[in-house]
Amino acid sequence: MFKIGEFSKLSMLTIKALRFYEKEDLLIPAYVDEWSGYRFYETNQLETAATIKALRQLDFSVEEIRAHLNGVPLRDALRAKKTALMQKQADISARVSIINYLMEDSEMKYQAVIKDIEECIVYSEERTLERYSDVTILVLESAQECLRLNPGMECVKPDYGFCEYLDGEHKETNMRVRYSQAVIKMGVGNERIQFRILPATKAICIYHKGAYDRLGEAYAYIYRYAMENGYQVAGFHRESYIDGIWNKENVEDWLTEIQLPVK
Description:
The chain has helices at about 5-10, 15-25, 45-55, 60-70, 75-105, 135-150, 215-230, and strands at about 1-5, 30, 40, 115, 120-130, 160-165, 175-185, 195-200, 200-210, 240-245, 255-260. The chain contains 7 helices and 11 strands. The mean pLDDT is about 90. The longest helix is centred in the middle third of the chain and has 31 residues, at about 75-105. Helix content is about 35%, strand content about 25%. The strands form 2 sheets. Strands 4-9-11-10-6-7-5-8 form an 8-stranded antiparallel sheet, with helices on one face. Strands 1-3-2 form a 3-stranded antiparallel sheet, covered by helices on one side. By secondary structure, it is of the alpha+beta class.
C-alpha cells in the first residue's frame, strides 16, 4: 500500500485533490488507520486515479465522472461530453459574433440581451386603435373588465404586461393591437377578455428610453440584430411598458422594453 503522499506522486494528483475525490466518493482510500488517520491506497487504484484525472482534463464534472465510474460506458460518456462541448463552442462563437456586432455600432445606444421568458398565464384583449396613444386606454379598460369578471384577480410579481401589433406591417392609424397581462391563475373571460397560457420562449430584449415616436429606431436595431446573428423570429414583437406617463413626468424618462421572440 501507498501512503497518501506517495500515492499523490504516483497518480500526479495533489493531496488536496485526493481528499476532495474521497469526499465525493470517487476515490476512497483502501484503508484508513483508525488511530493515526493515515490514508493508504492500493496499486490498482492508480488506474481509477488516472481515469479521473483524464476526464477532469476533458471538462467532465464530478457528477459525470461518478456516472462513468458507476457503470456508464466510457464511449457513451465521451459522446455526451462531445455534444455538450460542441454546444458550448457554438454558444461561445455566438457571443463573439454578438460582441463584434456591438463593437461595430458606433453609438452603442442599445444593448441586446437574450432572455428566457417563462411560461405564464395571461389575460388578453384585442382592439383596433385609431391612434398609438390609445394603448393607455386599452391597458386600463382591459384591467377594469378583467377585475369586473374576476374580483381580486392578481397580477404576477414582478409585473409583466405587453402589447403586440398584429397587422404585420407598420400602420399610423387603425392598428390591430393585443394587450396581455400576466396573472397568477386562469379566470373567467368573455367576448373581450380571453385567458390563455403563454408558452415559454427565448427573446432578444432591448430597452428604449424616451418617447414612443422614436421606437422605430429600436425596432430597426432589434430586427437587424436578429438577422445578423442568425436568429429566426418566432412571434410578434412585444412592447412592455416599465415607466411611462403614469409615473414619469418627463417623456425622456419613459422606459419600454422591446422583446422579440426568437429561436
